[in-house]
Amino acid sequence: MATIKKTDIRALDLTQLQQHFSSIHEPTYRAKQVYQWLWEKSARTFAEMSNLSKDLRQKLDEHFAINVVEVNNSQFSNDHTIKNTFRLYDGNIVEGVLIPMEERMTACVSSQVGCSLTCKFCATGYMDRKRNLNADEIYDQVVLIDQQARKNYNVPLTNIVYMGMGEPLLNYANVMKSIERITAPDGLNMASKRITVSTAGIAKMIKKLGDDGVKFNLALSLHAANDIKRNEIMPITEHNTLKALAEALKYYYSKTKNPITYEYIVFNNFNDELEDAKDLVKFCKHVPCKVNLIEYNPIQFADFINAEGDKIDAFSNYLKSQGINTNIRRSRGKDIDAACGQLAVKDGEKLSAE
Questions:
Q1: Which of the residues are catalytic?
Q2: Helix, strand, coil shares of the chain as percentages rounded to 5?
Q3: CA torsion 95→136→176→130, rounded to 10°?
Q4: pLDDT (0 to 100) of residue 106
């Protein structure tokens, strides 16, 4: 007898759920109850849905699946950062990080299995993109990391950054749905302003964010404000020049009035000179923004080196002298390969998860 392929119930919206209950001659208010269990209470099984009859729970279990994400492994850094490998329902693995700081508790989540971009300084860029994550798989990472924060530090999550594996704007629909469920009153009810989506720079999708009037924060991984240099480390710029990105960012800002954050890794003898800082200042004039200067975190595939501390300080001071809000962001979780640019599934991790 052939096995019935179950539908991922979290792929359905509330209207579709109501239609299903109507088709099986159940009252449509049951859909709202199930929806609440799935998105507000983060139920992982139908058995948990205690206000539904046992018969109804069994019917749901026969036709639908809740494709939950599981913590495969967790590593604890000396600075209290926790890196997780998450096992997806199909055996694929992604990584997510809990970053505890005095003023905030941040989850860094992945949006793709691997990445289709090939940024030379990023470990994920050396992996193939296997598939996009579904909205519920992104949502589950947030739920699991929040549970981890409460258990280990007795503090709930305050912030979420889409800065893990993958390019979020190349998984636009699922990323947007995950944010809708995370911020909805009948979801996790987190504030949009506590969420940041980071992109390597997909100009047409940045414009789409503007058209959609998003409320969350946007960060652009810039790393060089010079097309030749940027293209050397981020091949994406062959289709998204700095001019195209500037036009997209201006359009985005005109629609949302949200300032932009530029992420700028300072590499030794590559983009750490005064001339590079001057290029960045020019780019910063397009829209209201701030700059995060980031320490480089070495990976085994590349031979980039972090800029000297005095160079980073001089770079920062110049930006500040030009009126640009600038922060130097120190790496977290470097000792467990959990820092920015270091997330990549190691050989054998998928196998060990199965």
A1: 95, 340
A2: 40, 20, 40
A3: 50
A4: 96
Question: In terms of C-beta density within 10 A (0-12 exposed, 13-18 middle, 19 or more buried), how is residue 194 classed?
Answer: middle
Domains of the chain and CATH, by start = 7-65 (1.10.150.530), 70-353 (3.20.20.70)
Give the containing element (helix H, strand E) for 218. Answer: strand 217-221
Calculate mean pLDDT across residues 1-27.
Answer: 88
Segment holding 71, helix H or strand E: strand 70-76
pTM: predicted TM-score of the whole model, two decimal places: 0.90
What DSSP letter does each residue of 152-195 carry, written as one string?
HHS----EEEE-SSS-GGGGHHHHHHHHHHHHSTTTT---GGGE
Question: Which pLDDT tens digit goes with each residue over 196-213?
Answer: 999 999 999 999 999 999
Per-residue pLDDT tens for 296-306?
877 666 677 77
User: Per-residue b/e over 252-282, b at no fewer than 16 CB within 10 Å?
Assistant: bbeebebebbbbbbbbeebbbeeebbebbbe
User: Partners of 76 in the beta sheet?
Assistant: 82
Bridge partners of 160, per DSSP, are 107, 195
- Find residue 87's DSSP bridge partners: 70, 93
- Look at residue 156 and tell me whether its pLDDT is greater than 60: yes
Residues 95 and 85: beta-carbon distance below 8 Å? yes
Cα dihedral sign for 348, 138, 161, 210? positive
Cα–Cα nearest to 220, from 288, 275, 281, 291: 291
237 pLDDT band, cuts 50/70/90, is low
User: Are 22 and 32 a contacting pair, CB within 8 Å?
Assistant: no
Task: Give per-residue pLDDT as tens, 255-296.
Answer: 999 999 999 999 988 899 999 999 999 999 999 999 999 988
**Residue pointed to by tokens 């983009």:** 271
pLDDT band at 114 (very low <50, low <70, confident <90, very high): confident
Other beta carbons within 10 Å of 218: 22
Distance of alpha carbon 34 from alpha carbon 14, whole angstroms: 9
